[in-house]
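tokens incoming
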């Protein structure tokens, strides 16, 4: 972890693209804190969410990662990871998408919480997010 005082010497992980970022919406992050307080989600679920965010494509918003790979990344067992993802899905924070045409499977984070790209991309991701919610 880099210290703020030594930020100019900090080796930042990047895919070589200066556009590698996502937006977090503070109002909705406050809602996540309420979910924690009210015990609808757990601290571990927040770690799962951050793990998913760290893998989000800034171009598409898609997270191409299995629950097993995510569990390994954050150091928890797969069952705990799956249970956390389930709670995040119940709170409409995350959805799992399976493309009908291609069979591709990926996660999306609610674009009102975290979003990649601009307003057009956010609209597309919201459409995909709603379709995934409706198909569950």
């Amino acid at each position: 972890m880099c210290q703020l005082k030594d930020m100019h010497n900090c080796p930042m992980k990047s895919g070589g693209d200066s556009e590698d970022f996502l937006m977090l919406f503070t109002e909705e992050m406050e809602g996540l804190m309420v979910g924690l307080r009210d015990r609808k989600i757990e601290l571990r679920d927040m770690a799962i969410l951050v793990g998913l965010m760290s893998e989000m494509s800034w171009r598409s918003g898609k997270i191409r990662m299995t629950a097993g790979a995510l569990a390994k990344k954050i150091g928890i067992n797969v069952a705990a990871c799956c249970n956390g993802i389930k709670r995040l899905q119940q709170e409409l924070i995350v959805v799992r998408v399976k493309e009908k045409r291609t069979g591709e499977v990926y996660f999306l984070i609610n674009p009102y919480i975290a979003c990649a790209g601009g307003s057009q991309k956010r609209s597309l991701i919201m459409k995909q997010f709603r379709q995934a919610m409706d198909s569950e």
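note: The longest strand covers residues 94-98.
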